[in-house]
């Protein structure tokens, strides 16, 4: 399929063979501003090789979504780097091992959740690769996994005995080769292969020959069997030739490889779904000397994915929610109080941007659109957010004031839906909030012509810079006319708590439904009242007996009482709703 892109003067690109027009849309209001639609689909960090400023190769996402460049090391280079780090560069082996083991543990945690893959067996060899395995097991324990260790050839150096003591103090079991269960598949979810690293040579000697065979026969990655444990190899799949890889073709086929410092040549032969790089400690001297091109580590992460990410079977992605039951008797009478309670829980759980909410609107054409916005206030009148009054959502809201808001608090398995009608907040309220924002965001609001096609990123930045200079004296930045807040007045709240086996708990507070029910009761009881009064009049003229007269009088009393209760309930409910 041809996928050429034609650029027009307006920066609107037409994707050949596609009905979609790709344009650069201005947007500063979403939690993650994305100026270029093309960026939104890129899963890798893009940029120049950050470890080596002299390396001009650019990291990019190719159509097959693979990293284009990375350096590979020979066995000799790996050993030399090791010596340089621990010689002239002043590192100690403990330090590097700690960082390497932490990288392995974080890479594992990134792919295999402890809720599903808790039982880990780390098989550790006699050298530093084995040490990395011991350190990784300790970190995995602290991340919530249940590691066990098989460490058949212990090294009597203080570094290693110290690592063993640390693990023992955490009550992490050590299993001898003989103690290992005959069927590893039943007992473990993750096998950490930390037997040999870059100093491996020849063929494996006992007992590692047998251990390697057991791992090799477990499964391989093209036969994805749910019950088989996954194999994570540290630096090099044990038993593989450091440069040539799995020469016999019968070696370990790991699901994950965590290369340390830089991948060794054998890593080119790795065919598993998860290849990571760890060891975020490589100094520029090493990068320069070996002309290394390494990917940038994202944020504060200790590992970075390299290579092609796995093909995911979307239909197989599912989560079994484990959360406490959410019962009617536990909820607050007032939906705003219930909302505050859950919002506080989301904040306390440390969720990122708990105030991020999906806002759905539809204009008079009835075609809905959703986007993320940030909640900036909840009060007795509703939920408030700010935006550009010339944006698409603003146009839609001017045609149709009905909107729906959705909060999704992933870590808590919770979701809150709020529906109602939307109105603009007062100019004073918008002014007040606008001036509380960081000055950069205030200038951003002036620059942004949201939802319009922009001439390009540069023009945008130029305008921003001009305004930044203009207001560099700290003077008041005026709120643009086109910028302000909206308030959704809720008519419905729905609180959703995920539960095992899709038996979720959902509780709704519906203003309309409640009022409708109460009014239909009032109408029915009024009809009954009329009938009762009619009959009691008949009694007066002597048509009925005294006994039935008493009966009708008490019926009238009961109906009047029920109506009074109903009126009180409605007024209390409305009061609670608006409070
Ligand atoms: N700078 C870095 O990049 C960092 C590297 N780090 C880590 O260090 C690893 C390299 O460690 P390493 O040099 O201790 O070697 P490693 O592979 O663990 O094994 C050596 C042991 O295996 C033995 N052995 C060898 N062949 C054998 C065979 N056929 N059958 C049986 N045994 C055999 C050998 O015994 P020998 O042959 O010497 O008698 C020796 O006892 C590296 O891959 C990475 O994981 C991080 O910790 C920190 C930063
Ligand atoms: K290994």
From TrEMBL:
It comes from the Eukaryota. Gene3D superfamilies: Electron Transport, Fmn-binding Protein, Chain A, YjeF N-terminal domain. GO terms for molecular function: FMN binding; metal ion binding; NAD(P)HX epimerase activity; pyridoxamine phosphate oxidase activity. InterPro entries: Pyridox_Oxase, Pyridox_Oxase_CS, Pyridox_Oxase_N, Pyridoxamine_oxidase_dimer_C, Split_barrel_FMN-bd, YjeF_N_dom, YjeF_N_dom_sf. Binds 1 potassium ion per subunit. Coiled coil: none annotated. (6S)-NADPHX binds at residues 128-132, 197-203, 235. One of its GO terms (biological process) is pyridoxine biosynthetic process. Its EC number is 5.1.99.6. It catalyses: (6R)-NADHX = (6S)-NADHX; (6R)-NADPHX = (6S)-NADPHX. K(+) binds at residues 129, 193, 238. Pathway: Cofactor metabolism; pyridoxal 5'-phosphate salvage; pyridoxal 5'-phosphate from pyridoxamine 5'-phosphate: step 1/1; Cofactor metabolism; pyridoxal 5'-phosphate salvage; pyridoxal 5'-phosphate from pyridoxine 5'-phosphate: step 1/1. Its cofactor is K(+); FMN. Residues 78-314 form the YjeF N-terminal domain. The keyword Transcription regulation does not apply. Belongs to the NnrE/AIBP family. Homodimer. Catalyzes the epimerization of the S- and R-forms of NAD(P)HX, a damaged form of NAD(P)H that is a result of enzymatic or heat-dependent hydration. This is a prerequisite for the S-specific NAD(P)H-hydrate dehydratase to allow the repair of both epimers of NAD(P)HX. This is NAD(P)H-hydrate epimerase.
